[in-house]
Amino acid sequence: MSPGAVVVPVEESSTLRNTVGYVVRRAVESGEPSTLHFVFPLSSRGTVGDEYDRASDLLDRIEVWVEEDRGENGDRVTVETAVVGADEYLFSPGDYADAIAEYADEHGVREVVLDPEYRPTGSTPLLPALEAEITGTGLDVEEAPVERETQRDRLVRRSGVGQFLLLFALSAGFYLFLAGWSTAPYDLITGAVSAGAVAATLWHISFTGAVDPRRLAAQFGRLSLYAVFLLWEIAKANLQIAYVVLHPSLPIDPKLIEFDADVWSTVPAATLANSITLTPGTLTVDVERRHFTIHSLTAGAREDLLDGKLERAVRFVFYGRSAARRPTPGEREEVEE
Q1: Best label site of 106, 154, 247, 248, fewest CB within 10 Å?
Q2: DSSP H stretches of helix in the chain
Q3: pTM for this one?
Q4: What CATH number does domain 6-143 carry, 3.40.50.620, 3.30.70.20, 3.50.30.30, 3.40.710.10?
């Protein structure tokens, strides 16, 4: 039996990211070796099809989140992911509890942490019944103490001093940038007043999560490296397109391609889409969640896109080095022309 082990059943939800963060933080703060088991109970028989692909994609994302959350002091925290119940038909809370308990027994785990918005069968809330069923198997059950969202998205959210200070710093920096980085007393005072007004007005709206200075600084540092990388890619693509335009035979091969990008939230997807458009030879035609439709002017531009340099660089900025090593669009063989 592993004393620091815990099983976390997962499904897409509004609180899943915070639940993963809570479990990782608790394991790191314990100071003991811990194994976190994230399991996806399938809601239908079999392991072939969209349901299994969705489960695998979610578990991959969770591994990246754990890597991001455990930081430098999380070397004692290990992660295991699995799809459970694939050879059974899961219908009732008891069915899900049995699948989870069977996995826990096989791996010597005695504790289960539940996401407060965990709904394995879709929109039907099963958490109280599922918690009772899991407790009946002899396992210890805890509901992750993370804030639930209301049924309607709220414009104003609970925010702390960190959000206010970050927004103030960004607003003041932008004001001084427009003023030519002037250090005159008038510019400093008016910049502070303007930044204070912006921060006081928008700090409950602009940021939805807690500000982690170390993580934020790391992302800004990686973003600076990405800006240099993107400028280099743009310069190379300009030369390639100039060659094509000036060539007597005009060797173009325009095509539309579609693929699912390996990014998992709005800002990274928007960053990737804009980066593709900024690079001559490729144009983002449409983005729906992770599904990208791209127009490529030449075969070379298409190959560069599918090599995944931009996608990996974007993952590096937002998710860290471990995410940058994930397969490229070409390696995933998901591209449609």
Answers
A1: 248
A2: 16-30, 50-70, 93-106, 127-136, 161-178, 185-202, 213-246, 266-278, 299-306, 309-319, 321-324, 329-332
A3: 0.54
A4: 3.40.50.620
